[in-house]
Amino acid sequence: MAKVTINGIEVDVDPSMTILKAAEKAGIPVPTFCYHPRMDPAGSCRICAVELEDSKKVVMSCVTPVSDGMRVLTESPKIHEARKTNLELLLLHHPLDCPVCDCGGECPLQNMSFAYGATESRFESHRNDEPEDMKSDVLVFNANRCILCGKCVRICDEIQDVHAIGFINRGFDTIIGPPLGKKLDCEFCGDCLEVCPTGAITDHFVRYKYRPWQLEKQQTTCSYCPSGCQMFVETENEAIVRVTSQEGVGPNEGSICAVGRFGFNHVQIPERFDTPYMRSLHRLVPSSWDEVLPEIASQLNAIRKKGVDRIAGLISNRVPMEDAYVFQSFFRKTLHSNMIDTGSRYSFMNAALPIVDATGTLRPLVDHEDILKAKVILVIGADPVSESNITGLFAKRAARKERSRLYVVDSEAITLSNRAKDHIRIHPGGEQIFLDVLSEEIRDSQNMTPEWISRKEELFKNWNVDPSAYQRLLNDLKSAETGVIIAGRKLFRIETPVSGVEALLRITGDLGWIDRAGCGLFVLPEAANDLGVLMMGASYEWLPGLMDSSDKSSKGRWEEAWGGRLSYGPGGGLDAILKGIDEGRINALISLGENPIGHFPVGSRVREILSKLDLIISIDMFQNDLSDMAHFVLPVASAYERSGHLVSAEGFVQPIKPTMAYWGESLPDWQILDRISTAMGNPMGIESAEGVMAEIVRFLPDLSPSSRNGSHFVGGTGEIHLATPVVFPGILSSPKSIQAGTALPAAHKANRESVSSRYLGWREKAKEKSGIPAHPIAGEGEFVLELTKSLFHSGKMTLIDSNLKKIQPEGKLRINRQTARKRKIKKGEQVVLRTTFGTCSFVVEPSPAVSEFELTFPVHFANGQVLGLFAPDLEFSAGTGSPVTHRIRVSLETQNAN
Amino acid sequence: MAETKHVEVDLDDIEKICEEFENREGAVVQVLQKVQEKYGYVPAEALELVGDVLEIPKSKMYGVLTFYSQFYQEPRGKFILKVCVGTACHVRGAGLLVDKVREELHIEPGENTEDMLFTLEPVACLGSCALAPMAMVSGTAYGKLSADKMVSLIRQLEEETVHEEETV
User: Fold this and answer.
1) How far is A171 from chain B (nearest CA, A)?
2) How confident is the model at residue A162 (pLDDT cuts 50, 70, 90)?
3) How far is CA A95 from CA A98, A517, A556, in A?
4) What are the chain B neighbours of A153 within 8 Å (beta carbons)?
5) Are residues B84 and B56 in the same domain?
6) Co-location of B52 and B95 in the same domain
7) B72 falls within a domain
8) Which parts of A94-225 fold into alpha helices (H)?
9) A170 touching chain B per CB within 8 A
10) What is the CA radius of gyration of chain A?
11) Does B23 touch chain A (CB under 8 A)?
């Protein structure tokens, strides 16, 4: 340790620390422009100058390491003069257009000039007159305001690993921008916008529309993907103006993606339902809560009397835990129905069921910090950057800075592939056999049966797996001290997803990872609250706490907790609900933000089946296929207006906070259900979302809110990695510990011991599956069409967001560049895809990322026409009840051929 | 200034250039030099292809390209008239030489003639101040120039080209 005296305060610090970090430890702030805690220091802005008392030298504190006995002054006449001169020089170029600059009022340069009194310059000013770079639809670069601290370039390189912008020219003419004078082409995360200490980078969406000091700021959790980013929603007059992040706050540590940062506009457009609607003479007419509630109540009461499981419920996997909890208790207690399901059914359920079966929990064994420390990372069937952006950032950082060995197994080149040690470009359809062979070889590589050996050869021969890359992966998995396997939506959508996830669970166990800290499987749920909604028992299988709903003792526990008998039927998921409706056993459907019609091909019978219902209540924000058929449409509050909690992929239970007033007459889901219940004569006695959360935590204390704030310093001096767990005041698992002052945040990861004991039992049962044939992909044709997630959209709702629509206005069919050249297909041309079920035309975009036999299309833009390429029969997987059609063989026709 | 026509860049050529730089870090300047050697300047398309082949971020390469004055982003004439405007040449009338070229060829410093034969490039010093005012074309130094000598040099170069074309 080194003893350093800063402004007379003595601190003991690691000798690898810089003076700036030592000062921070001593509680002394040092002004900075170019310093950023997550990046390597640059030392370019010269504002963090400090004086060494002994040598009287001025050094830059952000790049100078401490030494034992060093005595530092962060404020002295000499330092004041140095900083003032520095500011004078910076302001030589600066246009001083603060009155029209968006940054004015929150500008570090402005604040610093004020603090150091750099009011007049001794130098002749040299203002740049570079026109603004307005080419991008998202960001505007104003070179004149730029002080060339380089933070934007560095965050794009070091944190995002996108390298979209760089320094251009030299000396006085240096500007920042995308290369070759082209339009900015990047992930549009907006991190550069966030870190810019001046108004040099602004965005088109809110330029000139606000003054920072007039905005109200509220921290909340992003409700798009499961990363659980903490963001700040800034509003003026109950309207969202912008979304920002703050360095170090939340598990995202200050980075948020394009969807989180810019995708807020759709919640404040006139198309949103602002009042309840009631069907009258085949038309939906605006109504009021007082009118619709008694009507709904009497109809539901009449149907309820017919028996159990008469009313079905669907709930989105984006709603907070509280609403999911109220949803299931309303159905099970009041409506006597267990016919409930969630949006997770469409794919995440394929992972959730086997994982809960094997480990007893949905919480992961590892989190993002473990990814960063993992020696080996395997990404299979996932594109972390677009599915859970922050997971992607951590994986990038692990590979880039921590030198962990990253393997990607995917037919497509994902963002992470170019950082991977090996990218195994497996042909689509080979994922299962790959996992089976890998799992068998890990289990017992010495005694592989001839059958397995021949399957392994098949893998190398037919599925484009490079034997040496496979061997490297195998060796690394076996020998690495710590490792993480990341799986996502693609794996949950292969032809045999449950077997795939089971193989991953076997691999994890056989590698000994279940009992080893820092190792495990990390699955990426598809929406912000898949985990929370399932933990709250919103699907028919589980009661809250993932307890088996058909199990007598679990049911008894909740009967005792809730005080009253639970008389629901056996229930069922989406498949059973549709079947029940078709056969007349279900008469009513309440949908909370779900539209089952949109998930099936136009030719499927879903619409016809749903039209058999006596009562459809659609609780939604926007008009959709289901609300068009509904008897009642109830307006719901958006995630920006309500409060509640979301469970992130890492297992953090984080709060979402209201940032503006409810839109029109809209209400949160729980309140709508509570009002219906009250109107039916069964008041649920819920007062607030906070009350519901308190009840949840009383019964399930491990779901107490938890989070993590990042405070990192990854510098040239080596890795120093600190993270601060966050203690939320209020709801905590043990009130006593708060009094004792020893409050610890609830653990967000799964308990290894309990997982381990459960896993042993599961592993005994889980036999090695030998000889399952590789599952062919249905259909005929030379290409496999796959629907993938885009980085710029989340679900279908963001399609109407004006900001995100500007970033990605339409879905394009991506085709391999070489294949396109061979078939003479040009960018932007129309092609027709044909299957036995339908045809659909697409606009083509050649891309080197897609493999030769593959075509990909963003799932968000997959309307009924696109889905019409898939089989229209309602087929559900036997094990998990999820719809099975996810990819299909297609033939491609070009128009020039016809 | 005449509209400059960009050359067509062939992927095979770029791949050949990139061959020796694969798996080598910090070779951006050298790659760009090779590209410039091949095309006379660094075409935007070539920069993009090099970036793709060597997996170097284009923003980094563009940064290097614009940083060094040795790299050109526009096609250049066959003969680069490097007219010295350094101190010694300046006092011996380098300005007159530059003016004469402008007048004669109707191009401004940094521009090409329409037939892509000449580029006027005033330079700071060529290191032969004893010969001031001087210029350099295709590696050959011409000393003790005057405006008239400059014109005859241009004529001579033009004739050479015509002669070359005829023999071809």
Assistant:
1) 9
2) very high
3) 8, 54, 71
4) 59
5) no
6) no
7) no
8) 108-116, 151-154, 191-195
9) yes
10) 29
11) no
